[in-house]
Structure formats: structure tokens, C-alpha cells
Design a protein that fits this description.
- About 40% of the residues lie in helices and about 20% in strands.
- The protein has 8 helices and 5 strands.
- Mean pLDDT is about 80; it is low at about 5-15.
């Protein structure tokens, strides 16, 4: 009787675990620079509603495209995030002349886990959510960049309200008053490309 109870308890816990997981899929599309080139850049498709002209290319924290040594390199990168290989095929295009690699991946998504957890795309960098904006605004290099725009009168006025919500007034004032333009340029070299929109371009 005790063994039966333990067996039933195990099966119940197993079913509960499976109920909390969801099988999801993702297609990664790798594009090579030429037929002879092995290095690839990768974009992702989670089946999401794609916005016109918005890129799903994988990028680093600064918004620059991540270049992988090969598709295997890209698969290993995705594997670290829990994605597993399902199938693949290659298409060779004529204009431009290049190989386009299509890899289908799958993953068991835990309850509450976002499908794009750990992944940064060009679209998400260009249009971060409010929480991400606050996180970016707290970084010294981004504060320094906005302070530089203010100090050199190159700040686009239409973003003043957003800036006032994101950046602490006291911290910005200290940066502007205590740092030279050259110091602010040095501090802001690695600022997030999201804040480039704040600058007035002549």
C-alpha cells in the first residue's frame, strides 16, 4: 500500500511538472556574407507579430549585430539558453549571392518564463520596454551621453519629458557641472544606441 501511494505521488508530481511546462519553437535564420564565408549573423522568429521595418537580428548590449563563427556557434549560443535543435535546411539566394541557413529549435518553457529570455534583438534595443529604459538610464555611460548632449546643446527637445522621468536630475546636474565635454565623451563611448535618438542631427 505504501509503495502504491509513493508511486501515485510520483506520477502526480510528474504530471504537475509537465503541466507547468509548454513546448515552444523558434526559427533562427543565419545569413552569410558570401558563399565562401563561414561567419553568420542571426535573426529570430518566435512566431511573433513582426512590426514593419523592425529587425529581429541578434545584437549585443550596444545594439551591434552579433557575428557568429558559424551556425554551430550560433546553435551552441542558443543551447546555453535551453534551446534544442529540431531540423534545418539551407537556401542559396541569387541577389545578393549568399547562403541563408534556417534552423528550427525547440524548448520546454517553464511557467512564467518569457520565450525570448536572455535574447536581445535589434527591435528590443530600438524599442525597449519601460523597465528596460530605467535599467539603461541607470548606467553611467548612458547618463554621461545624455549629459554631453545637454552640455553641448544637442539635445532634441521632444525627448525632454522622457529624460526627466528616466534620469535623476541631481545626478545629471553633477555630471554636467563637474565634467568637461571631453571627459563626458570618453565616459559615454559605450552608451546604448537607443539614446542616439536624443541627439539633434544637423
Amino acid at each position: 500500500m505504501k509503495k502504491l501511494f509513493l508511486c501515485l505521488a510520483f506520477l502526480f508530481s510528474l504530471s504537475e511538472m509537465n503541466a507547468q511546462e509548454k513546448q515552444v519553437y523558434c526559427e533562427i535564420v543565419g545569413t552569410s556574407a558570401s558563399l565562401l564565408g563561414k561567419e553568420v549573423t542571426v535573426s529570430l522568429d518566435f512566431g511573433q507579430d513582426r512590426k514593419l521595418f523592425k529587425s529581429q537580428a541578434l545584437v549585443d548590449e550596444l545594439g551591434a549585430p552579433i557575428v557568429f563563427n558559424s551556425m554551430i556557434d550560433a546553435l551552441n549560443w542558443m543551447g546555453q539558453l535551453g534551446w534544442e535543435f529540431a531540423q534545418a535546411y539551407v537556401v542559396t539566394t541569387d541577389s545578393p549571392k549568399q547562403n541563408v541557413y534556417h534552423y528550427l529549435l525547440t524548448k520546454k518553457l517553464k511557467e512564467g518564463e518569457a520565450i525570448d529570455a536572455g535574447i536581445r534583438t535589434k527591435e528590443s534595443v530600438d524599442s525597449p520596454d519601460e523597465g528596460k529604459k530605467v535599467e539603461l538610464a541607470q548606467k553611467e555611460e548612458n547618463m554621461a551621453y545624455v549629459a554631453l548632449l545637454m552640455k553641448t546643446n544637442r539635445l532634441n527637445s521632444k525627448y525632454k519629458e522622457e529624460i526627466s522621468k528616466l534620469f535623476p536630475f541631481n545626478s545629471m546636474s553633477v555630471l554636467i557641472q563637474s565634467k568637461t565635454e571631453e571627459e563626458l565623451r570618453t565616459m559615454s563611448k559605450k552608451h546604448s544606441k537607443y539614446f542616439d535618438r536624443y541627439e539633434i542631427f544637423e
